[in-house]
Amino acid sequence: MTSRPRLATEVNYVNGIAALALFGVLAYVFVTAGLEPPRGFGEGSIVASIGYAMFDMLDLVPDAHGNTEGFLVAFLTIAVVLDAALDGAVMLARRDDEGGSVQAATDGGQPLDEVDDAPTGADAGTTGGDA
Amino acid sequence: MAIVTEYYLLLSAAVFCIGLYGILTRESALLFLMSVELMLNAANINFVAFAFYWGNLTGQVFSLFTMALAAAEVAIGIGIILVLYRNFDGIDVTEAATMRW
Question: CB contacts < 8 Å between A and B, how many?
């Protein structure tokens, strides 16, 4: 049996009116803001300038766009944050009750108990974890 | 002829409000995560639009960092949803009303 996307009927539409009202307010403010035409970017490669700005080396590029700032500290901070997020995701996904590796429930679309020759890799992993 | 900045702002407001609508109306944690991503990307549209407005690449570079932050947030968020599913047999955020169970 396949499932198909269905229109959500159990949705609380009344709360959504707040989002519509916020869009109305924002649209009114933006349309009546009276912004100048955009300055745009001059000559030179934008991608190259982004790369140089990311490593705080904008003095090397001759035609830097505007007074773009350097982002080396932000780059390193985001690198640490991504590493911490990877560790956090693994910590959250690990089961507490089972010490060994988790065996896959399916193998190529068919359940593992229906497979005649069970994959030796998964078995070796679980027995190795128990031992 | 460059597109005026107001149109970018309207697009960003629309994407943000779609995300807010999803958060206010849905109860599934996965849809919550998608809605938060929409709101985050609305901020990205603003960054890029105002980078073009000022002729300055700071906003574009910062939007890249926002995308990386969104990736980190999704990694943690999906981990939290996994734990939610394990402890409550579902990802309905209204069922997980207590800090301890």
Answer: 132
